[in-house]
Amino acid sequence: MLTAEQKRTLSESILDCFEKAITPKFGENVYRVIFANFDVKFGLLKKDVLSHPREFEQLLDEIFGTGVASSLIKQAIFNELANRFQIFEPLYYERNQNKDRIVSIAITEILNKAK
């Protein structure tokens, strides 16, 4: 089991990946809008994304549609998480059929690996 401090550190590392995936490619305003809407729509804070990744993915689809924009953001987040936490083999994203759930899959794997 993770200690409270380890959970906090893990959470900060994961959220740092979200920021590094979104901000340089899509802009600081997009990052802020996503998490402001996460709060408004679900009453969840940024730190709650670890326990509610499906809601986060749903929100991306609602804001950006289920097309290219949402997929690019999810892929960028997945790639950042996969690199930082050394999870998944290099072609995992391309081979995975559940691209709409790719962020949830990555967060679940990270949390399982941390146990």
Name its key features.
115 residues, Non-ribosomal Peptide Synthetase Peptidyl Carrier Protein, Chain A, globular, 6 helices
Task: Explain this structure.
With 115 residues, this protein is mainly α. It has one domain: Non-ribosomal Peptide Synthetase Peptidyl Carrier Protein, Chain A, CATH 1.10.1200. Helices cover 74% and strands 0% of the residues. The protein is globular, with a radius of gyration of 13 Å.
Average pLDDT metric: 93
Number of helices: 6
Low-confidence stretches: none
Q: Would you tell me which CATH topology applies?
A: Non-ribosomal Peptide Synthetase Peptidyl Carrier Protein, Chain A
Give a quick rundown of the structure.
74% of the residues lie in helices and 0% in strands. The chain is mainly alpha-helical and 115 residues long.
How is this fold's topology laid out?
Layout: H1 4-26, H2 28-42, H3 53-64, H4 68-85, H5 92-95, H6 102-114
